[in-house]
Amino acid sequence: MRTWRERRGLSQLGLASVAGISVRHLSFLETGRSHPSREMIARLGTHLELVPREQNELLLAAGFAPAFTALALESEEMASVRAALRRIVTANEPFPAHVVDRGWNIVESNAGFGIFSLDADPFLLEAPVNALRLALHPKGMRPRILNFGEWSHSLLARLGRRVTLTGDPALAALYREVVGYAPHDPGQTDDAPELMVPLRIRYRDDELALFCTIATFGTPLDVTVSELAIETFLPADPETTAILQRLDHQENRARSS
């Protein structure tokens, strides 16, 4: 309990106040002098903004059974989830979309993935493909990303926040690896203000500008489902839209011939 509280930057007084309990009671819970009920753990977990995996860990530490299942994505019970993910990424075509798990490993993607995998070293494309490693590695997308400084800065900031909030050693190891691929300087931005950082990437003879949106399941009752993120990439300008539609038309014509 104390570990999660400190990761959130809360004092005992701060957490006790929002949870509606006394500082003394919270102190006793953290030191083991008092044993919490499942209801108390759920209340504190809510105010600590714990995700299902972390709530399960808290329950187990207190001697209770987990509240959330943790099924493998490949299991029969997850067939409907896999089908939903496939429909979502396919519906985004001809624009790229993929689904990543807790560690940014790609578990589903659409035909637009070829924009990202072009010229990548084969070892980066061995399953499971890690989206961050592919994007930042010198033998991955890095040579083709035209605004690599600011794009990598954005990706590393997201990963760094996740490491701080979760304390996950696997994510910390991934951060230590990929931070070495990126410059410390986020790079120069255009004088014109932008609402979001686009991914500006070269694909063969074309230059593309894409915005990334991230979606998650709204009411997950399973740890695996709660940790999936659907990353869709949408054109940032009319030129990119036209290029991707042209490429899609060419590929469809080639498949039908």
TrEMBL record:
SUPFAM superfamilies: lambda repressor-like DNA-binding domains. It holds the Pfam family MLTR_LBD. Residues 1-58 form the HTH cro/C1-type domain. GO terms for molecular function: DNA binding. InterPro entries: Cro/C1-type_HTH, Lambda_DNA-bd_dom_sf, MLTR_LBD. PROSITE patterns: HTH_CROC1. It comes from the Bacteria. PANTHER family: BLL4672 PROTEIN-RELATED, BLL5781 PROTEIN. This is XRE family transcriptional regulator. It comes from Gryllotalpicola protaetiae. The lineage of its organism: Bacteria, Bacillati, Actinomycetota, Actinomycetes, Micrococcales.
